[in-house]
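Still learning. Show one?

>
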Amino acid sequence: MDLNLEWTLENNGDGWNVRTDDNTTIYISSYEWCKRSKMFDLHNIPSINPTSLVNSQSIIVTVKTQGTGPNFEDYFYLKVDLLDEYHNIVASFNSGEIRTSENIQEIKYCFREYGSHIRYIYWEDGAKDVEHWSGHFGAKVIDPSILVNIDTKVESVSSYVDKYPSVFNIPFATSFNIGLGKYRFVDGYRTSDMAWNHFIEQDIPISYSENENMYLDDEDSYYGGSSLKIKSWNNIIVDIFESLIGIEGDFSLSYTYKTVSNTGNIGIILLDQNNEVICPNEASTNIKFLENDWKCITDYYYVNSKCQIHKVSICGEVEEGYQLDINLGLLYINKVNEILSPIDAVYHTSWKLNSLDTDTEIVDINLYWDTFEWLDHCNIYIFESINEANDDFTSGYNGRSYLGEFVITNIPMKHYLVYIQPVNCLYQKLPISEIVPIEVSINRNTIFK
């Protein structure tokens, strides 16, 4: 069945523009909200036995979106409802309005613990243009997918993820962050009690999503909104990533975990292109229960000849009668002695006069710098001058940047000291004492647009 003929379409503005690139159907939106919806009846899908839905472990929905230039920050949303046979809503997901970018973003959500009476899945998504131009300059919608975890797929909706390599270089770091969660966490601590949706911070998705002993937990995280939950009553080896990481010499393997018991052992296994074990094929870490806390493990290995890591897996051992129940929060592979170093320089700084009144001149500041492979993000600290003659400064504006740029608008025209603090994939910070501040000053004769 051609899924594209089955959507109920709401064509506002100039409506949807549907095209096909490399056998992929792409819906491009217009200057008003263009919407699509569809109700799936799981009992009417020949490949699904209705009785097997009772044993369904998870339902994973995913879709990709991308902005259309010249301004790529268009709008997109996804709403999915699980309903019983009487059309009562059992569980829901609503992404809210998402701002797109030039890069393709993947929005995904895993339904769990929804009971045994699911019959219908209602899907609705929508997109529009930020420029409000006639034509089709809005967000693109690509590859909608629903995966019911009973080894079957919903109609012609494609599989959640292909088993192709998704990791190619080191340093490699992931917090299993899908860009959303019931809360936001930083370094294992909850920083907000509100639902968190920030898809620009998504990590590389896991290559294996159909293992009944593993799922993405959106209620606990080391960083972001989610972590990887592993549960089993037996000894297991769970594959996580397919990769093509070239490696030689000394390297380190770090991970953080949280558990609800002291029983069992875990370990990370790396396999090469010949399916040979690169690091010990065993669960070498004895699980320690730390209430509401994450445990960090770092192991060091040596490879005497260049090889490729083709698979990353987790090994778990548990005593009979006990359950292995852990969250994996961070996985980090890197060369040994990767040193945090300062940002060399801001290669472009621009100021723009925003407004002028009788008392204070107002400006915008834009900072840009080169990023590095090992860099996760930069903390920004800006101190404003209170007495230039005595070099007195006071803390003014703080922030964080993942993209190598930082913008502040509507600030007084003064002399500023800017500290850009690199943070690596393990969230280790370069000490402020090792950072040379950037001095920024301006007067009315040096306004750039």
Summary: Confidence is low (pLDDT under 50) at residues 151-164, 354-358, 444-449. Residues 64 and 106 are 4 Å apart (CA to CA). The first strand starts at residue 8 and ends at 10. DSSP finds no helices and 31 strands in the chain.
